[in-house]
Fold:
Amino acid sequence: MNNPSQKTKSKFLGESALLLMTILWGATFVIVKESLNDISTMLFVALRFGIAGSILLLILFFKKNKVATESILPGIFLGTLLFLGFFTQTVGLKFTSATKSGFITGSLVVMVPLFQTLIEKKFPTKGAQIGTVLVFIGILFLSNGGSSINNFLGELGANFNFGDGMTLACAVFYALHVVYIDIISSKHDYWILLTTQIVTVAFFSLITSFFLAGFSVETLHISFTSYLIFGILYTAIFATLITIGIQTKFQKVVSPTKAGIIYSFEPIFAAIFAFFLLNEKITNFGLVGSTLIFLGLISSEVIDSFFEKKYGNSTG
Structure:
């Protein structure tokens, strides 16, 4: 049953699918940045997830499969973690710089193996540990915006504010989502998990958009421009429906720590899209950071492959 070659193919397919998902995520930075000129933030998130959720509800209706009710609560739990990640990141960005936000959010690559060990009692492989360190250093280079590393770390430590705290909470929620996807997705109905996750985020985002408007944190507004419609449709279909569908289906064959390393490619793809579409320059620090992240992924694969051949299957 557990054919080694079949397991390797399954793992390769899973990692490739997660990398594709990360490319789709990377494009959203440019698209969302331009779209938010015409709509308030949480309302955009609500529409994005609302459209994706509506498509899934239609699919479920036409599939006419029996609803696996035992999968609804786990899906709501995953959706709540996902929403809290979006919400804390959005609020955090209002009080901190994009540079610091990128770095702090990227720290989830370190949190994932920690939570994997604490929650799943699974210690990451040697390759994953080394890859995580390289990726984290890469994120440090990629996020500092071209200033010296010492200055960036000094700014990070000396001026840690409310926005940084919210962004750190965002990294925790995203890391927990990655780990619990690994635990939950193999035990429950795929379509119900996917649908309830997305509908949960849409519901909480809509409620939050009115809540923030009521407390004058964010003005509720929308202007239906052609670019906004494109932005909502792209993020709803490609960056929500397809990406979360890929994550829910394929992450179970990839360890959470390895998945975290793959997700760290998101800022690289974001920088590439920004370079070609917005003419934003990639700094030398950014190139070094991107190289280190790439080396982190490659080294984790090579080292794990070496230990698997020498000592048998790794623990993940």
